Amino acid sequence: MDSGESSEESPVQTKKGKSKTPRKPKTSVLKQKSPAEFFAENKNIAGFDNPGKSLYTTVRELVENALDSAESIAELPFVEVTIEEINRSKFNSMIGLIDRERIDEALYGDFETAKAREKRLAKEARFQEAQAKNAALGKKVKEPTAKAIKGRGEASFYRVTCKDNGRGMPHDDIPNMFGRVLSGTKYGLKQTRGKFGLGAKMALIWSKMSTGLPIEISSSMKSQNYTSFCRLDIDIHRNIPHIHLHEKRDDKEKWHGAEIQVVIEGNWTTYRSKILHYMRQMAVITPYAQFMFRFVSETSDKNVSIRFARRTDVMPAVPLETKYHPSAVDLLLIKRLIGETSKPHLLQFLQHEFVNIGKSHAERLIGEMGADFSSKTPVKSLTSQQIVRIHQLFRQAKFDDPSGDCLSPAGEYNLRLGIIKELNPDMVATYTASAQVFEGHPFIVEAGVSLGGKDVKQGLNIFRFANRIPLLFEQGADVVTRTAMKRINWNSYKINQTQDKIGVFVSIVSTKIPFKGTGKEYIGDDISEIASAVKTSIKQCCTQLKSKIVKKIQAREQQERKRNLTRYIGDATGAIYGILKEASQLHANKKKRLEITDEDAELLQKVSSRLITKEILSEKLAQHVEQVDYEMAMEYATQSGVREEPRENVYLQSLEPQKNYMDFHTPIFVFRLFQ
Amino acid sequence: MADKRKRRRADSDSDDESARLPFKNRLKSDAAILSILKTLTEATKSASTSKTLTLSDLNLSSTCREVTDLALSSVQTEIQTLAISLAKSILAGNGFSFSVPSRAATNQLYVPELDRIVLKDKSSIRPYASVSTVRKTTITTRILSLIHQLSLKNIHVTKRDLFYTDVKLFQDQTQSDAVLDDVSCILGCTRSSLNVVAAEKGVVVGRLIFSDNGDMIDCTKMGIGGKAIPPNIDRVGDMQSDALFILLVEKDAAYMRLAEDRFYNRFPCIIVTAKGQPDVATRLFLRKMKMELKLPVLALVDSDPYGLKILSVYGCGSKNMSYDSANLTTPDIKWLGIRPSDLDKYKIPEQCRLAMTEQDIKTGKDLLEEDFVKKNPGWVEELNLMVKTKQKAEIQALSTFGFQYLSEVYLPLKLQQQDWL
Description:
The complex is a heterodimer of chains A (675) and B (421).
Chain A: H1 3-6, H2 11-16, H3 35-41, H4 51-72, E1 78-86, H5 88-94, H6 114-136, E2 156-163, H7 174-179, H8 199-210, E3 215-220, E4 226-235, E5 240-250, E6 257-266, H9 268-285, E7 290-296, E8 304-308, H10 331-340, H11 346-353, H12 359-369, H13 384-396, H14 412-423, E9 427-432, E10 436-438, E11 441-451, E12 459-466, E13 469-471, H15 479-487, E14 501-510, E15 515-516, E16 522-523, H16 528-567, H17 569-588, H18 598-608, H19 614-640, E17 661-665, E18 670-674
Parallel strand pairs in A: 1-7, 12-14
Antiparallel strand pairs in A: 1-2, 2-6, 3-4, 3-6, 4-5, 7-8, 9-11, 10-11, 11-14, 12-13, 15-16, 17-18
Chain B: H1 2-14, H2 16-20, H3 30-47, E1 64-65, H4 72-91, E2 97-101, E3 108-111, E4 116-120, E5 123-127, H5 134-153, E6 157-158, H6 159-164, H7 167-170, H8 173-187, E7 196-197, E8 203-206, E9 209-212, E10 215-218, E11 227-228, E12 236-240, E13 245-249, H9 252-260, H10 263-266, E14 269-273, H11 280-293, E15 297-300, H12 305-316, H13 325-328, E16 333-337, H14 340-345, E17 354-355, H15 358-369, H16 371-374, H17 377-389, E18 391-392, H18 405-416
Parallel strand pairs in B: 6-7, 13-14, 13-15, 15-16
Antiparallel strand pairs in B: 1-4, 2-5, 3-4, 8-11, 8-14, 9-10, 9-12, 17-18
């Protein structure tokens, strides 16, 4: 009812009373948005919420691509990640901008007004006064906390480089692999780390949005005798690559793999720990990979350089691409499969495009579909109604569960090694559950529980992995966290939930991980199949641990038995002697003579004549304790025998082949001396 | 519209009295109720002349264990003999150990003829030279020597005092308390004979006169709070009363209401409460009153499983102290209220009833398995009703009809209708 003001401008709208905008809106034009544009605008979907998270996600996406690439050619991965801090002047010179001095200081956000300056000086003076006082009193002088005043506009820039020894990329495909959002090689139905082909492209979009600098890619494949080099950015509006340079260079080192370099805005200070956690957890779940992580900045004390060494050369098998399970498809998917299939007839289509449908089963299904279906019905001629019928039958009919063969879990061996390598715990137990099914997608849960270790805080430390990538955010709602916190009775496994350093590792692999939320950061607690599988796996680990803990407690009891038994000797004999002494005094008093046997009277006599003292009682009791302790130790030894811990293979990293060595042979072993 | 409102107000005016205090109109005169009570008292007096049964009457003394009141000197001798035997065992190089009667639930037996729980004869050996029992054994010797000193000096101390003599060894009071009961069992005497008492907890008010350590106490002249029940029963004596019954109250709040309203003057009675689970002193006191005055005992407890449990502790004894159940239990306690069936009978509004928790229901079902509940079909019926409706109510629920509803309507009506089980 704001007709008064805006009537002359937009009379149509005032009648509806819809808008208060005084200006007439543009007539809505039908516009199309490219996928790249969509993701640029909704970058939080892909984990680029803010500069800090963007830096984290960039590292993460590049590392995961590198691992996938190396694993796809069954090469033990070697991944080098370098984050280089770039200050403003260096950044400006990179983009060819001349550093300009500030002329109008008051224009800037970090300009200190006279009032603020006064305040600051007063505060500094107070601080110095306190310092002087403390120094006079001989107290420890606090370092003045120099807070760097950082304005809003002071962005930090980082050059992120990730180099791997993977497959590399075909020379001609490189532009499309980076410069086109939603194009990828991971679209089939199989267990993959990434899913949508977004990662590296989002990093590129982010770099374009924050720095405007292009991405640089070097790549070489095994069969190539050259290195492809490509510098490109992305045309966001058209979702196509914009190539700056694309050339072949000499491959001097016989290297294969990819090296990707991108300059982005980020925030190392706030996301430092997240990035380091990510690298550490990645090292846990992929102990067969070697990671080299470096952070380089101008001030050398902030530099970080961590090497996560390879601990095994056993790699999980490459996950196989599988066919869809009938209960996991929807109408669209059936239509797509029909479009893609090479099989002409319905029977073959059912038999070959889905798992768990055999020939006889397919025939029975077709019989059930109705009169207008037959084995020979050409698939491509199926009407929409007929497809709906097939879909309905898929929903209702019973099918065997898909097998977990197509999955590639980390494996108990690797998980265990990873935990031992990175946490160095006192005890660890692992368990792999058999494959189970959720909505037609098989999944496997693996769990590990560790106790003690370095850099582990007291209480529950939860490490979550989905398709062998660590999940770091949104821990609270996750199925693993909920299960470990609420549904496991740690006490019954002799584990103290608040005191002990418990590490809980759960890795879930599946052809489709049912992530909750947009960020692919957690798995919901509402899927009972997964929740119960997680619970059983953790419990299995705990059961394994319990026997170890009990043994440990027994061993400790063995050691402490004598001390515990000896500790109370004084108290016990003191009490007994006290009674005896009082009794003997009574006894000595003829009037109150006790009615006791002569033998007992004699004992009291000895007490009063100090032939029996507290010390004698203590000594005798100590002798008895000694004897009992000895007997029990013998019993323990005969019961437990000489137990050996199960042996584990030690992985020794192989050295570069060297020719200069000498062998010393003995009947049992060969001793090889390298020169 | 106005007309309607007026009529409604008129309606509410007319049944105002009965709405505030429902069932008040059903009450007969106090004299009528008193005569009903008198017949009850007479019946109780004549019934309780018959001799109470003991374990030996039932030929159970061989398989069951019971303790007796021992004189101080015999406690002293018992301890000395025990100490001498321990010393001999140590000197012989065998260490030492106690044989402690087990007070576990499996070693308890409900004897229907006696209507109480007794302890069976299972014992466990408590050796010094074992990691699991070394602490308890040491505490036992320490408690023994402390009791020995008490018996020498002939003084009383509280459980708390006992604990504070060696806090370092006992660590917390539950440990020394548990061992104290063990020592009673080992020596075969009641806890009172050990000269160890608990702090005062129970209170009594009403038509009772007794002597406490020689001083005559008139419980009608103790104010509203009443007289604290003395922790050691041996100094209580010379009980006199003109009461018609004893009213056992679970809660302090209900006790206060009855005391303040001088309920015992309207209907001559003695009102007792232990403020929740009864302590030893209150149980001993109640038993003494019942035995000497031969009055009927009526219980007013919450309508929940714990109310019934408290009732059963007064009646049949607790499992923890079953070795002394002969001295601690009061036979023939009647469950007056508040019973699950009262909730509907007295139209207690829905908002004053509470839903039972899982734990409550489980406790209720467990109680149904207990022999002392099973022997009384009326109780079983009430408990079944409680578990079925899954509702409980406290005595205070009656306050919805006014704070004095309990003393002015509910109790008199209950007495008039002889509505006890």
